[in-house]
Amino acid sequence: MAEKKLIDLFNESQYYSLKYKNYFPIYEKLFDKYRDKKITFVEIGVLSGGSLKMWKKYFGEGSRIIGIDLNPKAKNFEDDEIEIFIGSQSDQSFWENFFKKVGKVDIILDDGGHTNFQQIMTTCCAVPNINDDGLLVVEDVFHSYGVSYGAKGFFNPSKYSFINFCKKTIDDINYRFPETKKFNFSLNKYIHSVEIFESIVAFKISESLCKIKNEVLYNKGKNFELKDYAHIHDPNTPGSNKFVVFIKNLYPKFRGTLKYFVFKINERFLKKFFK
Ligand SMILES: C[S@@+](CC[C@H](N)C(=O)[O-])C[C@H]1O[C@@H](n2cnc3c(N)ncnc32)[C@H](O)[C@@H]1O
């Protein structure tokens, strides 16, 4: 029998839950490969327990489903298929105790309080404790843009919003490349990639993939020693033309200066794509 769609399991859950409609295809894209596997799935934000029941049915018998909530009443939703931990997602010592008890986990879904502080503390505490090929999925990141919950929202936009932290993570991942800048605080030995959706950010964790050296490999195929037509040879590059190439070939020592001017003209042209 075909496995049920997540949206059907959501509608059938015995307890109340609320989720945005556009999240369901995203969850399925991210989580489908973990169905019927022996995984540990953690959701921050229990509320009435409805989503935890849905996740148990979705991931199957072999899955370990854990809910985390600050509200002690969430403990009432603990039963033989769901474990509940009471504590705050923004409390570093809560996470230390949690991972000491539970061990590393496979997926964490953050549907908790959604402030910058909660989302960023959760990311920093949880990422090192996620298994290889696991995920941290943070939802409702629209809060970073200052929408919802009244005019001020969570006092975003802010330099220190969660979405700005995600943008920093793009640099952090690229700083694995030799000779690039390094951050004082980095998660780049755990986060292999980041996937951005509307209102959801997914961090894909893999220490083993992060460790692969970024060295150039050369195969043994026949090499025709062809000239690399990069940069100013490209006739579509603004500022580059036959005259520039002619001067470059005539006076090789001006190559660097010519290249600089061509690149600056490129930048002026590109400006409009950044507006
Ligand atoms: C949007 S509701 C969760 C909804 C639930 N996941 C569902 O889909 O039905 C948010 C929950 O996060 C909890 N919460 C808020 N701040 C928290 C924190 N700092 N740590 C843990 N849970 C928190 C709230 O008590 C609330 O139950």
Characterization of the model:
The mean pLDDT is 93. The chain has 2 domains: 205 residues, Vaccinia Virus protein VP39 (Rossmann fold, 3-Layer(aba) Sandwich), CATH 3.40.50.150; 44 residues, no CATH class. The protein starts with 5 loop residues before the first helix and ends in a 5-residue tail after the last helix. It has 275 residues and is an alpha/beta fold. α1 crosses α3. The radius of gyration is 24 Å and the shape is elongated. The chain has a 7-stranded mixed sheet, with helices on both faces. β6 and β7 form a beta hairpin. It binds S-adenosylmethionine (SAM). S-adenosylmethionine (SAM) binds next to β1, α3 and β2. The site of S-adenosylmethionine has 21 residues, from β1, α3 and β2.
Helix content: 25-40%
Kindly name the structural category.
alpha/beta
Q: Output the helix-strand order.
A: HHEHEEHEHEHEEHHH
* Unreliable spans: none
CATH-level-4 superfamily name of the largest domain: Vaccinia Virus protein VP39
Explain briefly what this protein structure is:
The chain is of the alpha/beta class. 33% of the residues lie in helices and 16% in strands. The protein has 2 domains: 6-210, Rossmann fold; 231-274, no CATH class.
Q: Features of this protein?
A:
single chain; 275 residues; elongated; alpha/beta; binds S-adenosylmethionine; Rossmann fold; 2 domains
